[in-house]
Amino acid sequence: MLSFKQISTALILAVILSTVQSTSAGENGSFSMFSSWQRNYTTLERPGRSITVGTLNGTTTFFESSGAPFTAGTQGLSSCLVYAKRSDSEYSLEAHCTVTDVSNDKLYIGADRSGGNTDTGGGGTGRWKFLGGTGKFAGVKGSCEYQVEYLEDNWTTNTAEHCKWHKP
Questions:
Q1: Is residue 56 part of a domain?
Q2: 72, 97, 103, 127 - which has most CB atoms within 10 Å?
């Protein structure tokens, strides 16, 4: 038969282990998002290369979410600064974006892409990196792949599915 001391020690150890496990796990989940932007780019052409800079302004909608803070069906205003370089043999694009929801909480996102282009009818595949934010997005980290398409009349769409996020 177990003594009171052995039972007490086992219970205390179980509580400590469950607390350590739950605090080290943090919050995490997944979501998908769709953005539609009006683009305003300027391109400087040079022999054998070009540099493009500009802005994207529009909306982002979260869908297929595992839950807060990315609630399915919610939208936010989205703005990005974009910098792209193209040579005869290479292409690279970097973007820094902010999504602001109806509560004025901000999600900060970075993007990298090393293929495709920014021409109407073009696009490509890149990677989003979630860099935290304010309010409910504070501390959010994660990443996912995205697909961007450059449409006529300076419209751009971006779809990212199965994004993984966590709060350490």
A1: yes
A2: 97
Domain at 89, CATH number: 2.40.350.10
- Report helix, strand or coil for 117: coil
Strand partners, 82: 54, 95
Per the domain annotation, does 92 fall within a domain? yes
Closest CA to 140 of 110, 111, 166, 103: 166
User: Is there a domain that residue 148 lies in?
Assistant: yes
CA 108-70-135 angle, to 5 degrees, is: 55
Rounded to an integer, the average pLDDT of 44-61 is 97
**Coil/strand/helix, residue 107:** strand
Sequence-ordered list of residues with C-beta below 8 angstroms from that of 119, at least 6 positions apart, any chain: 150
Range of the domain at 56: 27-167
pLDDT in tens, 16-34: 444 333 334 589 999 999 9
pLDDT above 90 for 2: no
Tens digit of each residue's pLDDT (9 = 90 or more) over 80-125: 999 999 998 899 999 999 999 999 999 999 999 999 989 899 999 9
Domain count, the chain: 1
